[in-house]
Fold this protein.
Amino acid sequence: MRTGRLAFVAFVALLAALPAFAPQFWVTLGNYIGLYSIVALGLVLLTGVAGQTSFGQAAFVGLGAYTSAYLTTRYGTSPWLTLAIGLAFTGTVALGLGFITLRMKGHYLPLATIAWGISLYYLFGNLEMLGGHTGMTGIPALSVAGIELRNERWYYYLIWAIALAALWATNNLLDSRPGRAIRALRGGLEMAQAFGVNGARLKIVVFVYAALLACVSGWLYAHLQRFVNPSPFGINQGIEYLFMAVVGGAGSVWGAVIGATLITLLKQWLQDGGPLMTLLRDGLELVLPQGVSPSGNFEIIVFGILMVVLLQRAREGLWPWFARFLPRPQPAPVPSATPLAARPRGQDHATLLDVRNARKQFGGLVAVNDLSFEVRPGEILGLIGPNGAGKSTTFNLISGGLALTSGDVAFLGASIRHTPPYEIAARGMARTFQHVKLIPQMSVLDNVALGAYLRGRTGVVRAALKLDREEEARVRAEAARAIERCGLAAHTFDAAGSLALGQQRIVEIARALCADPVLLLLDEPAAGLRYLEKQELAVLLRSLKAEGMTILLVEHDMDFVMGLTDRLVVMDFGEKLAEGQPADIQRNPRVREAYLGGA
Ligand code: ADP
Ligand code: MG
């Protein structure tokens, strides 16, 4: 940790000293790197962490720049006031665009961002009041404490102070309650929603956050140049911003600075030419077909080739390579803290979960055929059946992952038929996934802490300002306790993806426990476990039951459920084949036939 901090102090010292000894030209580059870093930082969060690709970020930079240019030149508004207005305006536009585009899946989202990126660019160029393609001049310089920042060297300090503040805030955000939820978005919404994250809403929040950073950069740009025209806010620049975030690497906020620096210097170098460039250009002229001259867009071609090579060689960007030279922070043991409030166990309800004629059809296939059963408080109910019987589908009907075709499911006395999964989670249901859904690069501790999402309150602003430390300490202590209970204390700080698959299943159970559920839903938790691990799991489940936890256990492994469950429901071909005590079920000829026939 100490050497890491030293590296940071050295970086800031170098940054601060640069204008003192470097020629003007370097200060100008430094200014641009700072401006680009701020935009790329938003993309690290939006694209790198949350997995939402945007090519349109330059348009938000334009909104920030043009809002201030227009208001200061036309009405003489103070630039600091126009910053606030620009942020409000950009935030509103991003909210609207995010609401429409972030619902899109796959390649439609990036395409949509290209579409509105281009639209806004043409809007800037075609609005008479914004000066058309010639742009606007006479934008006033910024004043800080009465001093006009006309000098680029002074402006440099303002840009980098804001860039460092943005880095600090974003870094805080990543390491917090909303940050864990944002990281969870990348693997699809299902897992995040199962722990109470309103994924659609959170995506928009991240989108607006990134747009606001872009707006700040645009505002700084307008008052640095003191003149704006549409060209820096087009789709080319939008693509370059995305490149910066991807090349730098999304593993860390520093990826934004690395990407912005690399691409700015690279472009400068390619444009400057020099003997090497002349050689390359002549070479290209030989290989390119007649009539295609590389002279015009020469640097773009080389730039493109270099990007492709880089992305081929370093998928995760350059940050991991840089990080190798930095000391790895030694994780400190998680200190204990006041436990989070726990919820009542639901013992006063006669039935905790009531599945009534639940039906699910996939086209012509009836995966669950009018199934009814109930789960009583404090019991371990096993839902078993051969492969393809419809167990996981039933499981998803209960947790809200799939919508019922007909029938109903009531949890704690209230129907959850039309309740979204994140609200079902809030009522006290936690689940694991048959196909493990952890965030592989994140530590076991952080993965498990995501389970406590609904037990915290911290929002994006509090997290970014690091005002969440007390709650965070309690959440982490809770997560550490759940991990220890599940016997994985030795792996607390390991990346979840580095564990064996069986252990990852146990991490999922720890995460579910961290949610303090009334009803714990487990989908084939024993799959992939060795004999001894299965026994340890059985001990854990029994001790949870002893504390009043109710468990619905979907399992394929008959032996595992026999000694563990209070009652069994057997499914075959979507229907209930039998229900009763494990010993009776074991003797039931129809069950034996289904299992032997199925196997
Ligand atoms: P189990 O968990 O008992 O092995 P599932 O609930 O996964 O069984 O599957 C039950 C049946 O439903 C299977 O025939 C499976 O192929 C089908 N099925 C499950 N999910 C889907 C889906 N999303 N679309 C179409 N068919 C599905
Ligand atoms: Mg299944």
In short: The CA atoms of residues 284 and 290 lie 11 Å apart. The chain has a mean pLDDT of 90. DSSP finds 24 helices and 14 strands in the chain.
